[in-house]
Amino acid sequence: MLDANPKNVFSDPPPEQGARSRATGAERARAQGLDAGGRRTLVDLRSGERGVVAAILGGGSLRRRLAALGLVKGVGVEVDRSAPLGDPRAYRLMGYLLSLRNSDAARIVVEAAPPDGSERHS
Amino acid sequence: MNAIQKDRTVTVALVGNPNSGKTTLSNQITGSRDSVGNYPRVTVARKQRSLRHAGWTITLVDLPGAYSLTSRTPDEKVTRDTLQDQRPDIVINVIDAGNLTRSLFLTTQIIEMGLPRIHVLNMMDEAERRGMAFDLDVLSKLLGGPVVPMVARRGRGGDALLDAIVDVAGREITAMPGRIAYDSHLDAAIGQVESHIAELHPDMLERTRSRWLAIKLLEGDDEILRREDDHQGLMIQVAEARAGLERTHGESVETMLADARYGFAHGVVLEATRRPGRLDSRIALSSRLDGLLLNRVLGLPLFLFFLWLMFEATFTLGAYPMDWIDAGAGWVGERVAAAMPEGLVRGLVVDGVIAGMGGTIIFLPNIVILFFFMAVLSETGYLARSAFLLDRVMHAFGLHGKAFIPLVMGFGCNVPAILATRTIESERTRLLSILVNPFITCSARLPVFILFAGAFFAEWAGTVVFLMYVFSIVVAMGAAVLLGRTVVRGGAEPFVMELPPYRLPTLGSILFHMWEKAWGFIKKVTGVILVGSILIWFLQAFPRDLPRVDAFDDRLAALDAAPPGPDRDAEMARLANERARLRMAESYLGRVAGAAQPALAPLGLGWMDTVAILTGFVAKEVVVASYAVMFAQGAETTEEDTTLRDALAGSMTPPVALGFMTFILLYTPCLSTVAVIRRETESWRWTAFSVLFSLTVAYAMALAVVNIARVVL
Ligand SMILES: Nc1nc2c(ncn2[C@@H]2O[C@H](COP(=O)(O)OP(=O)(O)O)[C@@H](O)[C@H]2O)c(=O)[nH]1
Question: Are B493 and A15 within 8 A, CB to CB?
Fold first, then answer.
């Protein structure tokens, strides 16, 4: 069951190798070809800033996991705070707190939140 | 499994998001309690309990918390497979009322599974305090199945839930189909895959099941795909449908499904909410607490402070009851010894059973206090924060913030700790966490450290024990890096974890948590340790017929007849000592240890220490018990009033003692741990690897420690 690599046509592209690299989450995501193409992602939000999820880049399994926790298109997300070492960060969405590593947050493209906070599922 | 009406028994499964209150609920209605945690997914293994209500026997199956029924984590796999393959009669869907939208994501999948269901709207107290109100009838209509509002923590709504179970069971419903509306193209694709499945599995009578399977296949659920792997045609159809949908919609199927599910959830919330919540004061308070506890500057120092406090309290507070137990065991031993005639049976009872158990039970206070703190940490929600605080550090060692909790739990006992690794999604990180966990010094090893540190480093005892803890962490982390780069390769995994709001722990659940651990320990003492103590006593008391030992008796008898005097007494004591040692060396245990001892000679260890190490394979508690038994015999014959500690102090040098502690710290965990490693890795290979690896590391580290200490001390 704990065999390293289940062979499956549908499995994700191999996740990042070498977690030891000093690269920031965003750089790493870019290196995997998951460039947000200049668009802002969750990591770019400052503490207290709010955004609306526009897209989630990358693998199906991360996408499924994030969806199960409420991270889908149209959801308003606010940066709550960072861990003392800067990574991971905690985000508030749907009224609860979710923590994400910056390398994963860099796959979540956001748009500016409407000023009246009228986005879906807030 | 639907034998419902005939014998009036019904199996219900509790499903819900982590932290929605499933454990509390199940404890409330069954009346017993075991570990309740405010840390996501603490209920690990599947548990079953039965209770009676209104003439029915209700079997309650606790399932691990899940956010979704896609096989992403081992926990979610267990939950999904149980629902899918064992088909409980009724699913109880536990929802945190204050977190409705997110909870309904899981609910949509329960609906699609089509099992008879009851929805529990838990934590109504918190929702009410926020001014929220729901239309339960609307909710029930939209979700299918009755809705029961509850406050599990106070037992409110428990009877209503039991009534609802009996009611649903009595109606003999075997399925409650339900549909989530999807985009028309997606729906068409589901329909096609569904009919294909129905052809392949004609035995699957219920349509909801093939529809469910179709949805999971299109969602790309690895497990389900693997199961259907031999149906090539189906696989191709699914892959083509996925690609087609992605092309026409510019979006992955996962996204389309998730969007539809949240759309449904959102609609339900809109329709069923009579009054939305005000800004949550609980969240505001929680946030202010986080401002302190997760503070950039103070967060980590505070965490270390709590950790330090926990250990300080465990050991200094624990010292008082330890003295009482020590005195009590001694008193009992003396009484029993006085009441029984001298002989083998007395030896067995006093030196085997009482000495062995007394020497182990003495650590009960430490364990109770330690688990008090663990319970408070997990109940308050701080345990999850600790994973958040430390993920960056753990990540550097190739581990995961979530691996921190199992590691910390390892300080209590490696067995539940290894079970707790089930919260880790990636199998690689999970395997790593399992393999390094035995290096984390469990509470059973603490007795050895306390004994040895006290005997050899009296003034520095606390520091030495603390250093063993630090060393334990260092070795575990080093091993994680080493293994992560060599035998357990693979990629990292995402860190996606909920931080539950802070909650005041209930005294009741903390007490029960402690009681459970204390009871577990006592059971272990009376079971494994009792057997171990008796076995060791037997091995060292037999064979009885030893001519070389008997020869001493004649010499002692001759001396006894001689006129008394200091010289004679000293000579008698010396002879008695020698006799005792010879007696032990020629016993079965002595012979086995004698054969194994050369291997440990480089560590400066003698045959007695070899005995202790050998017996420690059974359980680390037995190590101290072994010494107690071995020295009890020696003490008796030398007629000296020596405690175990003093006896030990004379038997080796401080550097060797440090090396011995190191070996005890690191070598193969107890049999129970080996068993649980086997169970969790599902692999004898990894189990054997774990045993050999820890033996090797223990030997190498102990050798290094002895030699360095010889130079330094
Ligand atoms: N306020 C409130 N807290 C609850 C209620 N039910 C459970 N809790 C608390 O919620 C936390 C998580 O509960 P637990 O049973 O461990 O959740 P599980 O992870 O689903 O098993 C614990 O701190 C409980 O004391 C409730 O009805 N109201």
Answer: yes
CB–CB of B130/B269 below 8 Å?
no
B66 CA: distance to closest CA in chain A (Å): 9
Judge if B50 and B164 occupy the same domain.
yes
- This model of the complex carries an ipTM of 0.75
Predicted confidence at residue B425, as pLDDT, reads 67
Radius of gyration over alpha carbons of chain A, in Å?
Answer: 15
Chain A hits for B72, CB-CB cut-off 8 Å, are 61, 64-65, 68
Beta bridge partners of B114: none
Exposed/middle/buried for A37, CB within 10 Å: 0-12, 13-18, 19+? exposed
Q: Cα of B78 to ligand 1 centre, how many Å?
A: 21
B54, B96: one domain:
yes
Quick one: DSSP state of residue B525? I
Whether residue A9 is predicted with pLDDT greater than 90 in this model: the reply is no
Indicate whether B15 and B136 sit together in one domain.
yes
Give tens-digit pLDDT for B340-385: 887 788 888 887 788 777 766 776 787 788 778 877 887 888 888 9
Q: Which of B15, B19, B512 is the best mutation target for the ligand 1 pocket, counting ligand atoms within 8 Å of the beta carbon and taking the most?
A: B19
Total domains present in chain B: 3
- Where are the alpha helices (H) located in B498-606, listed in sequence order? 507-524, 530-541, 547-561, 566-586, 588-600
User: What pLDDT is recorded for position A14?
Assistant: 41
Residue span of the structural domain in which A100 resides:
25-112
The rounded percent of chain A whose pLDDT value lies above 70 is: 62
Taking CA atoms only, the protein residue closest to ligand 1 atom 10 is B21
Domain limits for position B82: 3-169
Q: Ligand 1 centroid to B224 CA: how many Å?
A: 32
Q: Is 90 exceeded by the pLDDT of residue B705?
A: yes
| Domain C-terminal end among B169, B198, B214 | B169
Give the other-Cβ count within 10 Å of B135's Cβ: 15
Task: Name the minimum distance, in Å, from the CA of B616 to any CA of chain A.
Answer: 29
Q: Which two tokens stand for residue B14?
A: 């509790």
Q: What is the mean pLDDT of residues B287-308?
A: 90
In sequence order, which residues have a C-beta less than 8 Å from that of residue A56 and are 6 or more positions away?
A62, A63, A66, A71, A72, A73, A107, A108, A109, B255
| Residues B388, A101: C-beta atoms closer than 8 Å | no
Helices (H), B144-252: 158-170, 184-200, 207-219, 222-227, 232-249
- Tell me the one-letter amino acid at A45: L
Instruction: Say if ligand 1 is within 6 A of residue B107 CB.
Output: no
Q: What is the distance between the terminal CA atoms of chain A, rounded to a whole angstrom?
A: 39
Which of the listed residues B36, B42, B73, B423 should we mutate to test ligand 1's pocket, taking the one with most ligand atoms within 8 A of CB? B36
Distance CA B301, CA B420 (A): 25
Residue with tokens 């009890």: B632
- Joined tokens for residue B532: 């171990």
Which tokens go with B107?
Answer: 């609910």
pLDDT at residue B34 is higher than 50: no
The band of B423, judged by pLDDT with boundaries at 50, 70 and 90, is: low
Confirm whether B437 is domain-assigned.
no
Is A73 an 8 Å CB contact of chain B? yes
pLDDT digits (tens, 9 = 90+) for B584-610: 778 888 888 888 889 999 999 988 889
- R_g over Cα of chain B: 31
Share of chain B above pLDDT 90, in %: 27
B222 and A68: CB-CB below 8 Å? no
From the list A15, A67, A86, the residue facing B491 with the nearest CB is A15
Count CA atoms within 13 Å of residue B393 on its CB side: 15
Residue B3 pLDDT greater than 60, yes or no: no
Please report, as a single letter, which amino acid is at residue B110. Answer: I
Q: Are A64 and B258 within 8 A, CB to CB?
A: yes
Using an 8 Å Cβ cutoff, are A113 and A52 in contact? Answer: yes
